[in-house]
Structures are given as structure tokens and as C-alpha cells.
């Protein structure tokens, strides 16, 4: 009888004196495995540095886990409950179930003061030569019949169509469905794509035509967005590619693609696309400020060849698109306030 060999997994000993966390915001959830794993070895590191451009993309609550890693809970508390009770109060709730929290009066300044001694903010725009950033909205509008269907789903959580039915089980599902309708198509309960209108596709075609050959990067959100955009580009005989492989990224940066399609979740931290173009079009919007800003930063960054970066948002009037745009601006204001509160003031000397 032959002996059976057994491989024993041995953990690599953690003997690092210093840890640098690139994209600290990826540790903003204290319940994730990555956070818990790092916390286990955190006491062994004598020094730790966290780097991020989006420290509070979803609000000040994001800061708890990030600073728990940095100072072991010295400034904002060792427990999430302690942090919530000190600086927040329940906002949206259903009975005893709390869905969100909002800062107590004066909480923002108190948090900024607590973390100011170990936090420093240096914006690229303040210290590097950055291209001018122009952001605008291209509004489209549903027909009265299309708007009626939109409102029916919003109010009744169910939409009856001639050959199918669409239901939204909860608020999150409803938000998702309304975003789909704003983008002009929706999945029914059987995962079939039901077209609603072509307004956004027409707007995208106008933007591409107005660019007069200038490369366009298009951000989409739903899979049916991608399929319908590709179908329209095929009809227009416009070469394009999705930026999901190194070869397509190389072609974009070499100026070989008039149109490139990208999903915000794959836009990635550190992905360099600035060599291929300076115009980004948001066909479908995201609630995530972090994904939104990181996608914009693929073009608006140091090394951009153009003096101006243009970011267009195709927005369907009187729909959830407008709420998403407002939410992104509000979140950005909160994050900007934090960045300004801990901004580095560096004296510059000019020599003749």
C-alpha cells in the first residue's frame, strides 16, 4: 500500500516593519475579509501609511474602518457602534431597522479635528500641471407614453407590458429598474431585454458626430447598454472596442480607436488611458462616487496630451438620472470638505 503525501499549507510570517496601503478606500468596509485579515497582523507593523484619492466616497462613515487600520481605533474609536453613536444619528429607517445614518450637528468638524494630526491632503490640481476639466450634461427626454410607463413602475413597483411583466421587489431593485428605463431599455422578469426608447443612443451619435473624428471614451453601466451601443456603432460603421484587454487598451492609447467602451467597475485604479483621448461620455450613470471619480481620472490626469478634458453626461430629464447626478455632487461636496480640512499648505518659493 503506497503512502499518500499530504501538502500542509503554512502561512507566510508577517515581519514587515512598515506597511503602505495603496487605495486605502478598498478597506472602508470593516466587515470584509481583507479588512479583518489586515487587522490581525496590524499590531506587528510599527508604521502604516494609507493612500487614497477617495477617502469618503459614500460619506463620513467610510472613515471608521480606514482609520481603524491606521491608528488601531485611537481617534475614531475601536468599535463601529461607538463611532456611530458619537458622530451620527439614524436617518432612513423602518421601525427598529436603520438603513442609513447622517452626521450630528458639528460632527463633520469634530471628525476632521480628530484625524487632522495624521492626515494630509495634496490634490493633483494644486501641485501638478493638470488639463482644464469641463463637465456638462446632455439632456434627453422621454415621450409622454414612455414617461407614463416610467411613472407606473415607480408608483406600483410593477409594469405590465404586452408580452412581459417587470416587477421591482424593493427600493434597491426599483432604483435599478428605473435606471435601466432612463437608459432606454429594461430587463423583464425573464431576463429578456425590452427596448423603451433610443434617445440616449441618438444623443451619443450626435456627440460622436460633433467630435469630428476625435476619440470618444464611453462609460456604460448595464449589459444591455453595451449591446445597444455596439449595435448602433455597427450601423454607423464606426470602429470601436471594449477596453477589457491589454490589446484594446494599447490600441486606444495609440489613437487607433475612434470609440472605446468601458465599464466603471473595470476602469480600475491606475489604468492609464490619457494618451488615447480627452473626451468621456457617461451613457449610464453610477451611484458610486468612487467609481465615478476613478473613471473620470482615466483621462483627467497628469500626462494628458490635450489642454482640456471634456466629460459629458447623457441625462434623461425627470428621471432617476437627475437624482444620481445630484447625489454624486452632494457626495463630492462632503469628500471635498474633508480634503480641504486636512489640506497640505506648502510654501512655494519662486526663484528668478
Descriptive report:
This protein is an alpha/beta fold. The chain folds into 2 domains: 18-119, no CATH class; 125-339, 3-Layer(aba) Sandwich (Rossmann fold). Helix content is 38%, strand content 19%. It is built from 13 helices and 16 strands. The strands form 6 sheets. It has a 6-stranded parallel β-sheet with strand order 7-16-15-12-14-13, sandwiched between helices. Strands 1-2 form a two-stranded parallel sheet. Strands 3-6 form a two-stranded antiparallel sheet. A hairpin with a 2-residue loop joins strand 4 and strand 5 (97-98). The longest helix is centred in the C-terminal third of the chain and has 22 residues, at 320-341. The radius of gyration is 24 Å and the shape is globular.
Essential attributes:
352 residues, alpha/beta, Rossmann fold, 2 domains, 6-stranded parallel beta sheet, two-stranded parallel sheet, 13 helices, globular
What is the CATH superfamily of the largest domain? P-loop containing nucleotide triphosphate hydrolases
Helical percent range? 25-40%
Order of helices and strands: EHEHHEEEEHHEHEEHEEHEHEHEHEHEH
Taking all Cα atoms into account, the compactness measure Rg is: 24 Å
Mean pLDDT: 86
CATH class assignment of the largest domain: Alpha Beta
